[in-house]
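Late entry, evening session. Most of the bench is empty. Finally got around to the prediction I had been postponing all week. Sequence below, unchanged from the version circulated by S.P.
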Amino acid sequence: MFSTKTDSTDVWQSFRRQMPVSEKWAYFDHAAVAPLPARTAAAIARFSEQASLEGDTVWPSWSKRVEQTRSLAARLLNADAAEVALVHSTSEGLGLVAEGFPWREGDNVVTLDNEFPSNQYPWLHLASRGVEARRIAPDERGRIDLDRLAAACDERTRLVSVSWVGYASGWRCDLDALAEVVHQRGALLVVDAIQGLGVFPLDVKTTPIDFLAADGHKWLLGPEGAGLFYLRREHLDLLRPLGVGWHSVAHASDYNRIELNFKPSAARFEGGSQNMVGFLALAESLELLLELGTQALSERIIEVTDLACRRLEQAGAKLYSPREGNHRSGIVSFELPGQDALSAKNQLAKEGVVLSARGGRLRLAAHAYNDASDIERLVAALPR
């Protein structure tokens, strides 16, 4: 069971009450699309009402709140707000690096062959520019051998792009060790952080990653289409801005002044009009997570998934996700002997249990508001 320390507080019960989805579902699909907290849904409803009744007269207050979203995202990373751009997706953020980087023919980028497509296609697309994408394989459980990764780099390796947490395996990289290896090879580190950001601590002032992208619709509990992109300040002028628009320049509100004078911050990469409602909603989710604290969230999620692993094994499941120390995450990949993963997923949904099927296995992705009752509901519903 959970620790006495956890049971002695109502923090997680309070968090659970803020997640209406828990009233109907045992929801274990946060690595796909997360449900919205009540306060986040209320922000969307409030925007809709204001947009309907007030039109753009409310725009200044919306814009001010969106800038607060940027500041909240910066707090989450311990970054400066000037290092954060608000983007529509992880793919957009990674694309800013892939397409904006000053490549030379013969350069290469190193990534993994089990990455989510968003962290493979942007690099493969560079072949027409003479840039090679080197895709190395982790082991069968998704663990990354840093020596093997280092061996794939040479003097023409400009970037290494890796997910913080593997979307199918649940393996959580040691970003400090990874950054050390990459920088020793003279390359820069790009991190797809979507499967860890918000629920595991990350301090970019001490963990020297160079670029990071994450959408908000997974562990950040935000809506789709509202995410963030981080670049270390020293790289601001390294990337060529893409999709340049009125929002890219320092004098963004002066429409009669046509001077290509980019903002002295990551906001130069935002181009045109923003997903205003999405970022207003994301602000609420970020505030909720920051109130709880990423250290407490990570400890709770490991506690929940450790219990899930024990109960699944007792029920006859075969676990595949590495559960080694700090490499554990909120994702648990498992098989039910003799059961097709997709069929089992659909059967579980009929019993009120939501998870995913990835790579021929079931994938459980638990957040900190999940509890033992959710796990028992899962175990009771497993196809036999």
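Two things to note before I forget:
The longest helix spans residues 294-314.
The domain at 4-36+293-381 is CATH 3.90.1150.10 (Aspartate Aminotransferase, domain 1).
Will write this up properly tomorrow.
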